[in-house]
Design a protein that fits this description.
- By secondary structure, this protein is mainly alpha-helical.
- The protein is 53% helix and 5% strand.
- It has 14 helices and 4 strands.
- The longest helix is centred in the middle third of the chain and has 21 residues, at 208-228.
- The N and C termini lie far apart (87 Å).
Length: 331
């Protein structure tokens, strides 16, 4: 006790620590990250919140992770993925590291537990032919739907980046697009924050067909604004509700799934449009550095890791290129 190595709050619980840790993190991390912390810790408190911090040990934590793997059912009525369980592990680990730094405990018992492995990312996307079917289908839909799908395909952006775009971000003369913010939904509100990483903030370019679609959509949006008058909510976003408010970040997904069902297209997620854009660029021989820059990956290595099997198919074609080259030289 004289050396300050004994924590004197004997009744200090895991719940008490979580509340202190959340207060500590609220001004440090992004809102989306904090919301994730808050949700995960709230679920953890239901199982181990009562445990005194001094009594917390490997066995108690192991039992909690076992509960997550085999008993807990998510709000979507599904078992948790290994990636989600890894998220719980990481948050608890960071919180207990904080407790060690504060001198509340001597060591972090969570570090003695093997990290749950993240689930391998499954890449679901459209082939060239399937992408063509999507484009033909979307051309039959309202101009708003066209704006959503063409922008998503052309930019290869994340859904939150798409819903965050404003008209000031797009130059309809040059096709230059500035991606520098995102929108999210939590606790009954839509909020804006920065991009996922520093590299995610980027300049992009769209094709002439997408520019033409956006011009048509902007004209229709302005007409809707005139009809609504004072009821128009005045959002500056490219994608808005019929009342001129920011659209819910889930709206593009709902529209996309509606189109898939209507035209009997292969079922993929909205994020699969992003994968489709990248896979098409790879098949067209676009350099990985340019692909990484376009979609806002943290590095070229990230692009290579996520889409390694697409690059592998391209790599298999190298002997054919060399065969053609050698044949030319031989002749």
């Amino acid at each position: 006790m004289k050396n300050g190595s004994v924590f004197q709050k004997k009744n200090y619980t895991f719940k008490d620590l979580s509340e202190e840790y959340r207060d500590y993190k609220v001004d440090i991390v992004k809102k989306k990250t904090y919301i994730n912390y808050d949700y995960r810790l709230t679920q953890a408190l239901k199982q181990i919140g009562y445990v005194k911090l001094q009594d917390l040990n490997v066995k108690i934590l192991e039992n909690f992770y076992h509960y997550l793997r085999h008993t807990y059912i998510s709000a979507r009525n599904k078992p948790l993925s290994s990636t989600t369980i890894r998220s719980y592990y990481d948050i608890i680990n960071n919180m207990l590291d904080y407790a060690v730094r504060c001198g509340y405990i001597q060591e972090n018992p969570n570090k003695k537990i093997e990290k749950p492995k993240r689930a391998k990312t499954e890449i679901s996307c459209y082939s060239d032919e399937e992408a063509e079917k999507l484009i033909q289908a979307i051309l039959q839909e309202p101009i708003k739907y066209q704006a959503i799908i063409f922008l998503a395909l052309d930019l290869g952006c994340r859904r939150s980046e798409l819903t965050g775009l404003t008209w000031n971000d797009v130059d309809l003369k040059t096709g230059r697009v500035q991606i520098n913010k995102t929108t999210h939904y939590a606790y009954q509100e839509i909020y804006e924050e920065g991009t996922k990483t520093a590299n995610s903030e980027r300049v992009n370019y769209i094709s002439q067909i997408t520019i033409d679609v956006l011009k048509q959509w902007k004209k229709e949006q302005l007409q809707q604004q005139m009809l609504m008058g004072s009821k128009w909510e005045g959002s500056k976003r490219i994608l808005t509700t019929d009342y001129g408010a920011d659209i819910h970040p889930d709206t593009p997904t709902k529209i996309f799934q509606k189109i898939i069902k209507k035209y009997n297209l292969k079922r993929i997620t909205f994020h699969g449009i992003r994968h489709t854009t990248v896979s098409l660029m790879i098949r067209k021989g676009i350099q990985p550095q340019l692909i990484s820059r376009k979609v806002g990956h943290s590095s070229v290595q990230t692009t290579d890791r996520i889409y390694s099997h697409f690059f592998e198919d391209q790599f298999k074609d190298v002997p054919n290129v060399m065969d053609d080259l050698i044949s030319v030289k031989a002749n």
